[in-house]
Amino acid sequence: MKQQSRSLIIGATGQIGRQMLSRLGDHALPTTRAADLIPGWLPLDLAAIATADDAERVLASVPLHAIFCLAGMTNVEACEDQQALATRVNTEAPGALAVVAARRGIPFVYFSTEYVFDGMGGPYLEEDDAHPLSVYGSSKWRGELAVREACPDALILRTTVVYGLDRERKNFVYGLMRKLAAGETMRVPNDQVSTPTYNVDLATVTQTLVERGASGIFHVCGPELLSRLEFARRVAEELGLDASLIEGVSTTALGQRAPRPLDAGLRIDKLRSLHPDLTMHTVAESFDDLRSALREQGVAG
Ligand SMILES: NC(=O)C1=CN([C@@H]2O[C@H](COP(=O)(O)OP(=O)(O)OC[C@H]3O[C@@H](n4cnc5c(N)ncnc54)[C@H](OP(=O)(O)O)[C@@H]3O)[C@@H](O)[C@H]2O)C=CC1
Ligand SMILES: Cc1cn([C@H]2C[C@H](O)[C@@H](COP(=O)(O)OP(=O)(O)O[C@H]3O[C@@H](C)C(=O)[C@@H](O)[C@H]3O)O2)c(=O)[nH]c1=O
């Protein structure tokens, strides 16, 4: 029987990958490194893909109509110590997979980050100069360049501080909820300014942009410019948690190894002007949608 052509979701176990998967349903072919645990998924390890030949081998005889590259080495601190792996996973493998997409004439979507900027003049537009501060940011910026070179029609989506329901319960909001619900203090940087992004909006916009044949770089993030401290306080307020347990500190005091862009955030003027029907929700609006689901998951009171 002829195999049906599907959209490859690389990184389908991740926060954003899960959202894409639930949207695309049977039209998606998810990948994971732990393939034996999930029947029907394609085994794919970005660390094993260095060249277009490697990518062709992995995808040989797999009919596809789009490739979404959501997988990445996303632990910003760990990237500082594992530069070679970060380069392979975030730069070289996406570039190699983009070659396959270009050869097949199918859409390729690469997820990038606000961390391509240095945070000295945000919020940023798509055409602003990149100047990453960290190994992670640099690997993603070089990933963008590799993807664009391999597949000039690729769609590159830059986002940041993505939150929402996450089966792995890994994003910032979960960390905050766990601490506050346990009555523990959370130290949060008061000098990292960004534009937090609801993962449902991000997945909806991604799907729509691909359906509309968009290409090039788009910033896709929430509409509010907030420090982590302000964001954390709003989340606490939305969930009825004790915001007095949130302690604002400088990034320096937090002692993170990877430098973060401070005065950052992304501007979505381009998205708004070319696709005015697409809405990125505020924190308050997204929590109206999210609150009950978080409670069902048993992580919020
Ligand atoms: N979350 C955020 O705030 C932001 C995310 N992004 C970008 O969006 C993308 C998705 O992020 P998010 O969903 O949050 O990520 P997660 O950290 O939730 O998930 C990472 C995914 O990458 C996969 N992965 C990691 N290493 C490899 C590898 N060597 N080979 C194959 N798959 C691998 C994991 O799969 P496995 O199950 O096999 O471990 C997992 O599915 C990333 O590219 C990230 O850089 C950009 C800006 C902000
Ligand atoms: C350990 C610790 C961290 N933090 C903060 C610092 C840091 O800003 C944040 C770490 O959580 P995050 O994972 O959201 O932060 P970070 O890994 O810096 O976030 C990034 O993720 C990657 C994938 C991106 O591409 C970025 O755009 C951004 O969203 O939490 C605290 O506030 N208190 C703490 O006790």
Please sum up the structure shown.
With 301 residues, the protein is of the alpha/beta class.
CATH superfamily: NAD(P)-binding Rossmann-like Domain
Radius of gyration: 19 Å
Query: Which strand order spans the largest sheet, edge to edge or round the barrel?
Result: 3-2-1-4-5-6-11
CATH class: Alpha Beta
Beta-strand percentage range: 15-25%
What structural class do helix, strand and pairing data support?
Answer: alpha/beta
Shape: globular
What ions, cofactors and ligands are bound?
NADPH dihydro-nicotinamide-adenine-dinucleotide phosphate, dtdp-4-keto-L-rhamnose
Instruction: Provide the domain count.
Output: 1
Q: Total number of helical segments?
A: 11
Order of helices and strands: EHEEHEHHEHEEHEEEHEEHEHHH
Going by CATH, the architecture would be 3-Layer(aba) Sandwich
The biggest beta sheet, please?
7 strands, parallel
Helix content: 40-55%
CATH topology (level 3) name: Rossmann fold
Cα distance spanning the termini = 50 Å
The total of beta strands comes to: 13
Q: What is the typical, i.e. mean, pLDDT?
A: 96
Poorly predicted regions: none
Pathway: Carbohydrate biosynthesis; dTDP-L-rhamnose biosynthesis
EC number: 1.1.1.133
InterPro entries: dTDP_dehydrorham_reduct, NAD(P)-bd_dom_sf, RmlD-like-bd
Keywords: NADP, Oxidoreductase
Account of the 3D structure:
The chain has 301 residues and is of the alpha/beta class. It has a single domain, classed as Rossmann fold (3-Layer(aba) Sandwich). It is built from eleven helices and 13 strands. The protein has helices at 15-24, 52-59, 76-81, 83-104, 135-150, 172-181, 199-211, 228-239, 251-254, 269-274, 283-296, and strands at 6-10, 28-32, 42-43, 64-69, 108-113, 155-159, 162-163, 186-189, 193-194, 197-198, 216-219, 226-227, 246-249. The strands form four sheets. The chain has a seven-stranded parallel β-sheet, sandwiched between helices. Strands 7-10 form a two-stranded parallel ribbon. It has a two-stranded parallel sheet with strand order 8-13. The longest helix is centred in the N-terminal third of the chain and has 22 residues, at 83-104. The model has no long low-confidence stretch (mean pLDDT 96).
